[in-house]
């Protein structure tokens, strides 16, 4: 999905371990090139990440992000909101602790007043969230990308597979009941084509 980090051709030799002290690069992450030091560490890290994750032009064309932005009247004054409702709300760590839509609405209304913005882009893992937000705050214009995944159902499937096969490591093997390895990782299921 991303552009190469370098224009150098791949090396002819294989990888090899270079002996060194484990703390040799311990503080390297805090280093900013001298000519950019006045801009600070946060700026340098942001520029570095932006460079490393430059999306290839063919991928940008495929996802048609510019057309999607136009359809949402994207521009200055757009509030961003991330609402989690799928697997993250039902794992053992966060069980039942997802933020209610009413709290999201309170915060969005405060930002709307403060910044005179009425358009809200919603990133969510649940198809019902956009509809719920639109009903709760009709004075705001909510936009988002539709989610085709039913993560509530997916979470139930994952939980059932984990109960049936406690301790099974992810080896990519699909069992006769449809479970495979560590089904807790959605990425694993996507990679196998278990999720449309």
TrEMBL record:
Tell me where in this chain the Alpha-(1,6)-fucosyltransferase N- and catalytic domain is found: 39-146
What's one GO BP annotation on this UniProt entry? protein N-linked glycosylation
Alphabetically, the GO molecular function entries are: alpha-(1->6)-fucosyltransferase activity
Q: Which domain of life is it from?
A: Eukaryota
List the PANTHER family hit by this protein, alphabetically: ALPHA- 1,6 -FUCOSYLTRANSFERASE, ALPHA-(1,6)-FUCOSYLTRANSFERASE
Q: What is this protein called?
A: Alpha-(1,6)-fucosyltransferase N- and catalytic domain-containing protein
Query: What organism is recorded for this protein?
Result: Hemiselmis andersenii (Cryptophyte alga)
Classification of source organism: Eukaryota, Cryptophyceae, Cryptomonadales, Hemiselmidaceae, Hemiselmis
């Amino acid at each position: 999905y991303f552009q190469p980090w370098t224009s150098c051709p791949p090396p002819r030799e294989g990888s090899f371990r270079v002996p060194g002290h484990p703390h040799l690069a311990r503080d390297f992450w805090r280093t900013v090139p001298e000519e950019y030091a006045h801009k600070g560490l946060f700026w340098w890290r942001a520029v570095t990440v932006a460079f490393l994750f430059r999306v290839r032009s063919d991928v940008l064309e495929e996802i048609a992000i510019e057309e999607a932005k136009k359809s949402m009247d994207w521009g200055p004054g757009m509030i961003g909101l991330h609402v989690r409702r799928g697997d993250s709300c039902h794992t053992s760590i966060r069980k039942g602790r997802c933020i209610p839509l009413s709290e999201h609405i309170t915060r969005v209304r405060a930002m709307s007043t403060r910044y005179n913005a009425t358009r809200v882009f919603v990133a969510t893992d649940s198809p019902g969230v956009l509809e719920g937000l639109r009903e709760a705050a009709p004075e705001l214009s909510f936009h988002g990308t539709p989610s085709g995944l039913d993560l509530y159902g997916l979470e139930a499937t994952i939980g059932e597979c984990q109960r049936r096969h406690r301790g099974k490591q992810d080896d990519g093997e699909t069992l006769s009941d449809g479970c495979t390895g560590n089904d807790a990782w959605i990425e694993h299921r996507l990679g196998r084509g278990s999720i449309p």
